[in-house]
């Protein structure tokens, strides 16, 4: 049994008109100790997905379909009381912009103590010992127990948030963009540290970021989201080496490299659709450089492509109709050749 | 190559820790930087290294504590007449990091552009101004220009707002655009579009650009020359490809090793730096990088290294680098 198993999850924001479907039929699972990365551009539903997994959504957002099973128990149908037993002890969450999530007027030590006191009965000594332990784990000198957040650098504040999430050695830590406010050196140090802690303590990680290049060397599985849906999912290395979906290819091609020849890049023109007014066919069609006529009318399902899944009609086992325009290139179902050509 | 702007010993300190503490934070110290005509130069370095302070010194938001800025052969400190100052401001406009707060939400796009044109190009009549406004909006890739000019900022995406920022700068007919992290708040998918725009502005309009970023990969994509900052000093400078192929300063080497490169295999032996960037308050002589430096020798603790030429136009401020 996987640690976490998400099936057909759907989250809607109730709005005045049509609801905005921010998470649409998302399924994936996380094994013990696994690192799963979720990438996609701003507004594609990454944070909403994490909030739904941790049952932290509040109106107007609500889970309208699907299940989230943690060790076989469905979190979606649990009461708040049942959830409180699991939260922090079995899974914990590091929120987006954790930089500001620490209380500015309380010392780091006081905040760790509060978090512990809220989840069990502990003596002062136990709290003090555990606080020192978790700070050491994330590489912060325990001297900083008496420091206030503004006395720490951005990287140290992020580490302190992670220390807090590790207080009860959970099996799953859910992290929303924990590094995006940091510069490259601090980012890399934090990524390496998360990986080391994982192998030391054995917890699984779900890691959300808009920067695909960041997770290339750290995650086992990769989910690429677009407009609320998973458009590609698979082992990280395979997706990077042979991206099957045109959106994944576009994202990868949007990163200049510091090695190899300097080549002109194009990025992805246009912007993501309004989630309450999605195109009738493929959500990516208006921006897709290789779309065919069928894309305008047919919503693609997830097709298997090698070890991965891709939500693109060109990945259908029996090829779709001829390309809509001369821009279109060969179907991406032969990822080896097409992804090389596109570089 | 013609020199457009040069700084000599440019320095900016800030008082910190209360009025009477007497402590001074050295945000920028002794910076010599030359920008040629039609050149794109990237200023890179980690958070707090002094990049934005240099930008603000060049834009005359801050006055230097010491040193000077020489623009087209004339020291800025000598510009006293309103007309000269105005003309400098038009020649060297700034584009900011945050596309959501840099445009006034109460005004249409046309407002800022027209204001710039009236102020900096009084020779144009109303019809010529309108034509020029359309031209700059088109030059930054926003179509249809007439319609974009009538929009309010909330009707634009983040990427479009940054383009408007560049259009406003272009209306001044600038010589040097100071772009302080212009893409770091934008989605990856649209960043490249703006980098390409900056490259095109140099080609088509002949402007120079000071591109400030902590993203070395985008600095490489765009720039001819790179200057690396650490703790208020420029620690390495040279042609971009040379600096990337053969980084001399140990800090530049650290910076390069931290760049995530999905196309490269992970180097499991790569050293990971846990060091914290310095806050340079009342520094004693010595190299500011020495606490984090794997190569430090005794001399680094007592003598501040100066930039030394180690290759063609390629210099580093390190006692050990060769
Ligand atoms: N209260 C709300 N009412 C209606 N729609 C909302 C609401 N909050 C969020 N949304 C929409 O839900 C979508 C998903 O938002 P979410 O914050 O999950 O995106 P994200 O992928 O985390 O983006 P980012 O990278 O910017 O953090 C967005 O398109 C957003 O406009
Ligand atoms: N007005 C000010 N008053 C006091 N200190 C300042 C002021 N402006 C900047 N500093 C300090 O000067 C140093 C350099 O800051 P600067 O903003 O130039 O760095 P930066 O390289 O642009 O960093 P970032 O990448 O975070 O934008 C920092 O330590 C900063 O705290
Ligand atoms: S289904 Fe069509 S529009 Fe959608 S990604 Fe594939 S080719 Fe592009
Ligand atoms: Mg988010
Ligand atoms: Mg700055």
Automatic annotation (TrEMBL), chain A:
It is a peripheral membrane protein. It comes from the Bacteria. CDD domains: ABC_NikE_OppD_transporters. This is ABC transporter ATP-binding protein. It is found in: Cell membrane. Residues 316-343 are annotated as: Disordered. Residues 316-337 have a biased composition (Low complexity). Residues 6-252 form the ABC transporter domain. GO terms for molecular function: ATP binding. Keywords: ATP-binding, Cell membrane, Membrane, Nucleotide-binding, Transport. Belongs to the ABC transporter superfamily. Gene3D superfamilies: P-loop containing nucleotide triphosphate hydrolases. Its main location: membrane.
Automatic annotation (TrEMBL), chain B:
SMART domains: AAA. The keyword Ubl conjugation does not apply. GO terms for molecular function: ATP binding. Keywords: ATP-binding, Nucleotide-binding, Transport. InterPro entries: AAA+_ATPase, ABC_transporter-like_ATP-bd, ABC_transporter-like_CS, Oligopep_ABC_C, P-loop_NTPase. PROSITE patterns: ABC_TRANSPORTER_1, ABC_TRANSPORTER_2. It holds the Pfam family ABC_tran. Signal peptide: none annotated. Residues 5-256 form the ABC transporter domain. This is ABC transporter ATP-binding protein. It comes from Paractinoplanes globisporus.
